[in-house]
Design a protein that fits this description.
Chains A, B: Keywords: DNA-binding, Transcription, Transcription regulation. Two copies of one chain form a homodimer. By secondary structure, chain A is mainly alpha-helical. The first copy, chain A, has two domains: about 70 residues, Orthogonal Bundle (Tetracycline Repressor, domain 2), CATH 1.10.357.10; about 110 residues, Orthogonal Bundle (Tetracycline Repressor, domain 2), CATH 1.10.357. Chain A has nine helices and two strands; from the N terminus they run ββααααααααα.
Chain lengths: ~210, ~210
């Protein structure tokens, strides 16, 4: 839509870096678009997201947006993944239990105090009857998040912090999956205490030691 | 719609119990309707369920059906709850771990080999944007199932099989909730091995003992 910014910064007379006219590299355009999508989603949720608006705010043509993300769902999922990547980073203290507790706490806060919770539950909801969205959801979001968590548990398993023989993929369902369960069917609240109980139950086991 | 059956059984000449004309007691009508709904759902899923069909097959007027269940969702949820009550009964061997393993296995089989899995994920999906359905889902289905499981864990906790201090409500999310997570976002399959891993992780804990 706009080509008024460029990948080639030109120093302006006041010393600030300015961009001249020209084509921006595709990766910059893509990053700008995803950044714009993320900002919209974390402030307003899915209702605020349109191709029109992203095109305008990111200075990208709608044609380009549609080429990369053929649906609102795909656009939302990739934008969301990037926007929460830092918030959902696992700390690395060397203590898997502490790191998981911290990250799960951040996840719960994100889900309960920003539009992210509603965004994800709506996308998961729609994906039950929309096969394309279901595939996008896994391809662009959930499979990556699962892998990041599983990788972390695998490292901890190699250093003996997790018992050998434990299938680390199952742990994802018993921690984050348990949170999603309460978000999707809110019989019980999603709280910090719940997150801590999830970790305690799973790490210590629920039978007397 | 039909009053050709009655709550008062009349022995027929061949000795079989037959029903004469007259009004059936409301609880019989209700039970017949729920039974019909359950049969439809477990064979065909939600798509086969209409008020018309239940009225015809159960010999109940549509007016009566609407009085009790003002929406297809409500009708489906109560019919489904009754139809799976026996299948999802917890055995009582005195060994909580064995009983949970058996019941969770039955649940996984129900979800993966009958239309029940698709039925529930569709209802959960719709309930993300349909507030009335969300309330009905919890009121007519999930809150009852949660309570049954929590009660079972509470008994086991009193006999010392579950550590004191464990919030038994959280266990529901780490077992059945984990299964729902994979049903709703199928990055990984729902298998018997998965169910067993869920129980092992939670009962034994994932750190070295």
């Amino acid at each position: 839509m706009s080509t008024s910014t460029s990948g080639t910064p030109n120093p302006s007379p006041d010393g600030a870096v300015r961009r001249g006219r020209g084509r921006r590299p595709a990766e910059d355009v893509r990053a700008d678009a995803l950044h714009t999508v993320g900002k919209i989603l974390l402030h307003e949720g899915l209702t605020g997201l349109t191709f029109e608006r992203v095109a305008r705010q990111a200075g990208v043509s709608k044609t380009t947006l549609y080429k990369w993300w053929p649906s609102t769902g795909a656009l939302a999922l990739e934008g969301y993944f990037h926007s929460v990547e830092v918030t959902l980073t696992f700390p690395d203290t060397g203590d898997i239990r502490a790191d998981i507790t911290t990250q799960l706490g951040s996840f719960v806060t994100l889900m309960t105090t920003t539009p992210a919770g509603r965004l994800l539950t709506e996308l998961i909801g729609q994906s039950q009857t929309d096969q394309d969205l279901a595939i996008d959801y896994r391809r662009l979001y959930s499979s990556h998040r699962r892998q990041i968590a599983a990788d972390r548990f695998t490292i901890a398993q190699k250093t003996g912090q997790i018992r050998a023989g434990v299938d680390v993929r199952v742990l994802v369902d018993q921690l984050w999956g348990a949170v999603y369960h309460r978000l999707l069917i809110p019989d019980e609240p999603v709280t910090e205490a719940f997150a801590i109980a999830l970790v305690n139950n799973l790490f210590d086991g629920i039978t007397p030691r």
